[in-house]
Amino acid sequence: MSLKLEIVTPTGKVLDTVVNEVVAPGALGEFAVLPNHRPGIVLLGGGAIRFDGGVVFVRGGVAEISAERVLVLADEAVKAENAGAVNAAAILDKLATETAAHEFVSDEQQQHFETERRYAEAILAAGR
Amino acid sequence: MANLKAIRKRIASVKNTQKITRAMKLVSAAKLRRAQQAMMELRPYAAKHRELLESLARQLAESGETNAHPLLTPRDEIKTVAVFALSSDRGMCGAFNAGIVRKLNEVVRERTAAGQQVVLFTLGRRMGIAGRKLKVLELHDLAEIITAGDQARVKEITAALVKAFIDGAVDEVVVVSNRFKSALTQLPTVYSLLPVAGPAATDAAPSASGADLFYEPGQNDLLGYVVPRFVEVQVRQAILESIAGEHAARMNAMSSATDNANGMIQSLTLEMNRARQAAITKELMEIIGGAEAMK
Questions:
Q1: I want to staple B240 with a disulfide (CB 3.0 to 4.6 A). Which of A35, A52, B39, B220 is the partner?
Q2: What is the mean pLDDT of residues B56-61?
Q3: pTM of the prediction?
Q4: Which domain holds residue A36?
């Protein structure tokens, strides 16, 4: 049995494929999905979604898991082969100035910063 | 009979106008294609978000939890309503702006008659101008629409609307905008944005996946992500539809302007030929008259 993986963003479908396993960056930590997983909804952080050798970087979102499908609604997603176009260093720089500007950070902002950081770092790590 | 030279001049000027309208039509057609594509790309994302929101809201309703999220909670009494109205920046697009401004006037009149105060948010320069003529409690001009499709502007606009609602400055937010039905029809429409309407009451049948879902983190955290995102998607959709509608309307207007110019050139050419013929006939008569007199 296999698993359908769909990644949808506001600017269109990034990925629609059939895989054996998905590893995704949840907001609470990375998790893996195999076929026949218990259905659920998971908040995503930033980072890399890995599947059967492929990689897609996501910048936060939410994943809907069912027995035969993983549907990712991402704020932004980019395939590994196109990730060169993303200026990850600039994201980190912007993040550094933003965090420096805030003395007190709400949980929500903290989560946003974390998502941004993980997204940029994942891309940088893959580029090396 | 108008003189020949004047008619020739008019034909030349109509031809020039036609060149312009034809060029504008082609430009609009190209822009329409791009705008329509952006609109189409958003659709699956928007549809999925609605599904997700409905499944979450249903779960919460089943567990007896109300007031799960401030954006989902309707207010008991509506004293102030925010109207988010969209138009184009430029004219030359037929009844596109006139229709939506008329709709806005209607909405404002109705709400005022119902004893509610109106806070107006306008997007698009034409709407900004129209909004200044209306008597409303507050007017926020969100400037031009043409750049409003990008992520950052959408977020900004959504944040402004959501903030007004959360702060309690307004009790409801409605959108007045042109819905893109097809390249030929744009429908001025009014619909509610906030509070977010939960699943339809008739939608009693639980979805197949509704049975035993797990949520990570909790349902409330997920709602906290999905609900604002859903509002943002709706705002974005309204903007993209309005932009696509504008280009479609302009394309049609320019297309008929080009056709009209064609008709005008035809009738002017006819008139010119008549005038020329008349002049020739007159000259001939004079020559014949002259020849007769010599006899």
A1: B39
A2: 77
A3: 0.84
A4: 1-128
